[in-house]
């Protein structure tokens, strides 16, 4: 398992953004700056709603 990508909907502005499941740095919404993912050392903690999972190939 190389890790998946997730389509995450921002809880503040509903912008949908692709986030890597093992993001090594904080991922912020491109529109409003809300934090969408926080690195934990393994699987990142997703702060928004995961609307879709994109399997890594
Ligand atoms: Zn946003």
Looking at this protein, list some descriptive labels.
57 residues; mainly beta; N-terminal domain of TfIIb; three-stranded antiparallel beta sheet; 6 strands; 42% strand; globular; binds zinc ion; zinc ion binding; ribonucleoprotein; structural constituent of ribosome
Mean pLDDT figure? 92
Main beta sheet, described?
3 strands, antiparallel
SSE arrangement, N to C = EEEEEE
Shape, please?
globular
The CATH superfamily label reads: Ribosomal protein S27
CATH class: Mainly Beta
Distance between the termini: 10 Å
Ligand identities: zinc ion
For the biggest β-sheet, the strand order reads 2-1-6
Going by helix content, strand content and strand pairing, the class is: mainly beta
CA gyration radius, whole angstroms: 10 Å
CATH architecture heading? Single Sheet
Unreliable spans are none
Fraction in helix: under 10%
**Strand tally:** 6
Briefly characterize the structure.
It comes from Halapricum desulfuricans. The protein has no helices and 6 strands. It has 57 residues and is an all-beta fold.
What does this structure look like?
By secondary structure, the protein is an all-beta fold. It has a single domain, classed as N-terminal domain of TfIIb (Single Sheet), CATH 2.20.25.100. The chain contains no helices and 6 strands. It has strands at about 5-10, 15-20, 25-30, 35-40, 45, 50-55. The strands form 2 sheets. Strands 2-1-6 form a 3-stranded antiparallel beta sheet, with no helix packed on it. The protein is globular. It starts with a strand and ends with a strand. The model has no long low-confidence stretch (mean pLDDT about 90). The chain binds zinc ion. Zinc ion (ZN) binds near residues 12, 13, 15, 31 and 32. Belongs to the eukaryotic ribosomal protein eS27 family. One of its GO terms (cellular component) is ribonucleoprotein complex.
């Amino acid at each position: 398992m190389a890790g998946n990508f997730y389509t995450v909907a921002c809880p503040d502005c509903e912008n949908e953004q692709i986030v890597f499941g093992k993001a090594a740095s904080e991922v912020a919404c491109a529109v409003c700056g809300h934090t969408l993912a926080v690195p934990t050392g393994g699987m990142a903690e997703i702060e928004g709603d995961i609307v879709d999972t994109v399997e890594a190939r």
